[in-house]
Amino acid sequence: MISVEENIITVDSKRFTAVFNGAAITSLRAKDGNVEFIHPEAPNIPLDVLFADNSTLGRDKHEEYIARKISDTAAHINIAGADSDRALLIALDPHSGDLRIVPSATTSRRSVLSVRWNISFDPNADIILPCVNGIMVKSDSAFPANDRFPWPYRWNAQLAISERDGRSCMIFCNDTSFKFKALNLERNGSKTTLGFESEVTGPVWQNNTAGGIEWRINVYPGNWQTPASVYKDWMNRTYQLGSKRADRPDWTDRIDFSVGWAGANPEMLDALAKAHPPEKTLIHLSGWRTDGYDINYPNYVPSEAAKIYMNKANDMGFKVMPHFNYFSVYYKNPFYQEVRDFQIRGVHRNDPQGWHWPPDTHDYTRMAYIHPGLGIWRRKLIEVVGNACDTLNAPAAFIDQTLCTWEYRQWLGREHEHRRGNVEASGGLYCHTSRFCPCRRGIE
Asked: Do the domain assignments include residue 137?
């Protein structure tokens, strides 16, 4: 049930009550245990706009808040200003009891990148974020500092969880259309504010609107693992992960030890076999090409030493994955001239994206990131990975940088947009090489 009195919106759900003052959520209280998750001090700007130069709209001139009840399960809050119009659509899901929030914004200024909805959490609550392998935010710890985590590159699952006193709260998104989003973290003393951002598709120079992503909130008994399991179950159902796991070769179930960034040294295999059974060991082989590591992609030609190493590893029962990269092309490789027009450019400054090392001189390597939605590139990658794995008789391939996916200036490629191109490339590698292709960093 949702009620509206002036600009105060009250939500009564199965497991919680929530109160909004304008666009700011000022209370989220678990009915079981009467546990409060929201900071008593609301965010300064509960609903903000982020521009391509990383500036924000902030408070507009002549702002007026207008709250309106749509039905017993829905309400709308509008913030009308001289140069902007921001809104929250608030609705209750009658089946799950989730509170559904859809932020949106329009401004007179161009180059809008996202609309950001901010929530400040009670200092007694710990916050668990699936960012860069997992972060816990505690009010009495300075780590982590202020940061912004784009999804899926640094924010690896589209959720955040708060827990305290045997209860937990999850803010999450069930988006399956691969829309870009971001999580903004702001620390100010004991006050931690998370900003849930709905990004738009690049280029953004002429864009003046953002929105369309639905965020959901619910409260759960137990610690953070309870809502995390709910989200995990949703992912299993939605993406049919069980059937995908069933397609993996049987040997993957026996692996319980791995070695990363190995060189083609056969003597190391003898030493490794004494430490762990080869049939339970997975090796990521980075030094196997006639070229050095991260140089001259997509030239994936096995060295003679690598052939000797792989023959011995296969005979001993090891499973070895040669290293590949899913979107990097060396500037001096002739193939770069075929795809240079599809080098990814940053959404903020239109700068060419790539891996240049070291950052100050680029003396070791200079590689361009090519749009994975480009069919020419996907076909090339499938070809070279398949040929190399055939030559080495490799049972698997290690595909690097698949999680390096963020908003770009030219989001749409010739055949696919970037996220779909990533999925098509990964799927194509499996189908056309008939090999298991685990990635260094998987995508949702």
From this structure: yes
Helix (H) or strand (E) run with residue 119 in it: strand 112-121
* Residue 401, Ramachandran bin (φ over 0: left; ψ between -120 and 50: alpha; else beta): left
Beta bridge partners of residue 11, listed in sequence order = 2, 18
Distance CA 120, CA 118 (A): 7
CATH code for position 415 = 3.20.20.70
Q: What is the pLDDT of residues 252-277, one digit of tens each?
A: 999 999 999 999 999 999 999 999 99
Largest CA distance in the chain: 77
Asked if 127 and 42 sit in the same domain, the reply is yes
Contacts of 401 (CB under 8 A, 6+ apart): 325, 326, 327, 328, 440, 441
Domain membership flag for residue 444: no
User: Are 183 and 302 part of one and the same domain?
Assistant: no
Closest CA to 181 of 198, 160, 195, 156: 198
Q: Are residues 61 and 15 in the same domain?
A: yes
- Is 442 part of any domain? no
Q: Which tokens is 271 given?
A: 């030493």
175-208 confidence digits (pLDDT tens): 999 899 999 999 999 999 999 999 998 889 999 9
**Crossing angle for the helix pair 375-392 and 418-433, nearest 10 degrees?**
30
Query: To the nearest 10°, the Cα dihedral for 47, 154, 161, 29?
Result: -10
Cβ burial 179-198 (10 Å sphere, 16+ → b, else e)? bbbbbbbbbeeebbbbbbbb
- Domain residues for 266? 248-433
Give the chain's domain count. 2
Between CA 443 and CA 346 the distance in angstroms is 20
Burial group, residue 163, by CB count within 10 angstroms (0-12, 13-18, 19+): buried
Please provide the average confidence, as pLDDT, over all residues in the chain: 92
Residues 219 and 148 in one domain: yes
Q: How many helices (H) and strands (E) does the chain have?
A: 7, 27
